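Supplementary Data S3. Sequence and structure tokens for construct A.
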Amino acid sequence: MAIQDIYPTALRLLGRPVLVVGGGPVATRRAKGLLDAGARVTVVAPLASPALHELADAGLLAWKPRHYRSSDVDRAWFVQTATGDSAVDAQVAADAEAQRIWCVNASDHEASAAWTPAVAVVDDVKIAVNAGGDPRRAMALRDAVATALETGDLPLRRHRVAGPGATSGSVALVGGGPGDSGLITVRGRRLLGQADVVVADRLGPRELLAELAPDVRVIEVGKTPGHHPVPQSEINRILVDEALQGHRVVRLKGGDPYVLGRGGEEAEFCRQHGVEVEVVSGVTSAISVPAAAGIPVTHRGLAKGFSVVTGHEELSEVPARSDHTVILLMGVGQLRDSAASLGRAGLPAETPVGIVENGYLPNQRVTIGTLGTIADQAEAAGVANPAVIVIGDVVRVSPFAPSHFKTADYSTTTPNTPRSTRSTKTRVLTL
């Protein structure tokens, strides 16, 4: 049988009688698949696998522990033979053919009236692959297609209007990471590919918007420091209104929706209005953007903890130690005041500071100085948001740090070596 002789279709076997002849591993897999389709399965085999025994004992299928009889195909809608004996399989296939019943002959795919494809299910999409009678090839292709659907490389979006009883719309709060499209999660990418409406921030993986289908609506609600053209209350309303119209809505955010992203407010508003909401965590900019400049937020021998705040928040409660990393988000406009506040709290003026603008993007820029110099440096260089500011000794690890920032006080090759207790005030670090 050539692949051109095949007419692909799908059988609806719910409640219909199906016969499986054989009790080994292949018959077991086929029986389970038929049960998943809702068929009433009867197995005929002198011996059956433990799995078939369990299914029979649970009343999920009928098992006749004997050899095959021609009358077994009577009243069956579909037959699967997998005895391992080609003569028996051929007889079953011939009996089914005589009664015009479709039969899969596992012993001879060329003579078989039907083939069983390699199958995978992603959401409500069932993928079935035939590959010229080569089951391993079919499975490899099936897995590749399923992976592409799972990751959003192939579209899962519905185009046909849902029928009666279909579920209403939904909202997904998707963290898009710091901006590079490769840093969105697999789940986030998949949901974006299914969206009817995308409510987008100014930050995040913007280039993914260009990959959306032409009829996907993109609603821009981006904010900049001190300028919120679409207030949060209006964003909340948009999410709920679009979902109540039956749309799949993705709220695409930069970073993580629950890290200074107001995702909690949006999720709460959706639930209050009966809208199903899913939160997909993202790669938070607070950690990932420093990493883009080679700065870990914690490092053995340098820092065991970190605090994340916005540049607009009061910093007096943040631990004022260079071995505790402070991360400021969107804090360029308040940098001079923030540095002064940390200095008043006791953080030494020589504490290293790194600013990473446009993390992971082609125009990424890194500026490194100290708590006492960084405000002047940033002003002279024209540093602007989006930027992440890192304050603490971990900045010394960055490959962008000047050579005199390096110190022997940390080690990854001899991790039990304690960090020096010398005061940073005894070291004068200048650029």
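Construct B, processed identically:
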Amino acid sequence: MSTSALTSDASTAAPKPWYRILYVQVLVAIVLGALLGWLDPALAKNDWIKAMGDGFVSLIKMAIAPIIFCTVVSGIAHIDEAKKVGRVGLKALIYFEIVSTFALVLGLIVANVIQPGAGFSGKPDAAAVAGFAKQAGEMKSVDFVLHIIPDSVVGAFARGDILQVLLFSILFGFSLMALGERGHTVRALIDDMAHAMFGVIAIVVRAAPIGAFGAMAYTIGRYGPQALGNLAGLIVTFYITALLFVLVVLGIIARIAGFSIFKFISYIKDELLIVLGTSSSESALPQMMEKLERLGCSKSVVGLVVPTGYSFNLDGTNIYMTLATLFIAQALGIPLSFGEQMTILVVAMLTSKGASGITGAGFITLAATLAAVRPELLPGMAIVLGIDKFMSECRALTNLTGNGVACVVVAWWEGELDREKLEKGLNRTVDPTDIETAVTTG
């Protein structure tokens, strides 16, 4: 059969039925879960319902550390010059800091203009956040730096500590690169391991609708629609601010790099819906890395930028910290001067680093920021404790989108972005919904 005939057959193949498309399944599951939580809260709070969401996130997280190790090591080992690794890393860090600053400043501006905490009548319960405050008190700058160094490599993998795994992966990658031809066998083995791990994710991700259903049902059943209460304003403000950041700030950055933010969001909608259902950006990390490679970003850039971004480029978390800090101050009637707000910006920039590796990341880093700037605001954290689940979804969605855009921009900046693949992917010339396609053909 001729090549043209094959092309014709491929182009005229029947589209996948709607009920077999992953993001449709996840969307339906989210709606059904919300309905269950609303109509039958007692059933929705059942341990087995909760286990659906928790179990899916755990299935994804079990593969995060080995995937990061394989992709980072492979990305570095396949680079001929060590200086290129440093160049890509430096560009990524510069981009992260600039965009993170935009996110923090946007949160401050919106909070000062809208003042969502003004007139709040709630009474905070200091005991409700004692545990978070205790963890936050331990998050000092020197402790953060020392925490990056694992006590043992095995321990870092066992805990799934992204920063520690990332450090060891970088060192191992440089060591393997220095071996030259002698390291060919190990490089090939790691590449094969990466394909195998993505194969594991391709199997696990089929359970995403189940996980999304369980997570959404438990959330609505546990907190109920009335959980929004007087805090609905803060939730709406945060979501609008995050949307504004994605469409305007990231949109302008994307346009400068030569692509549309709207098409990019459409391209990663599967991952966004998985994150929406699970409230965890890590649940979409493996698929996101695979999709970015197929979008034209070089393997080395994806392997370096995306894992690093999960610790250093948390745009949603940054917006949340400045917005929530001012909300609490307004709710408690504690005015913050311009200087204090600038201090919050600087402190939040530091405390947000590595947040993805901490349980209750956004909430704990908020506690760290408050403790460092105005400790008397800490009891006010109980005000936002009840709605943190709703806020975490928006944080995760914004973080995922921001890291995806960062990878494409750094690849473009480095001159390692395949424009042809980018156009085909964003214009839906190829079907990006089947992650297993890349695994079997890669």
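The domain at 3-441 is CATH 1.10.3860.10 (Proton glutamate symport protein). The radius of gyration is 22 Å.
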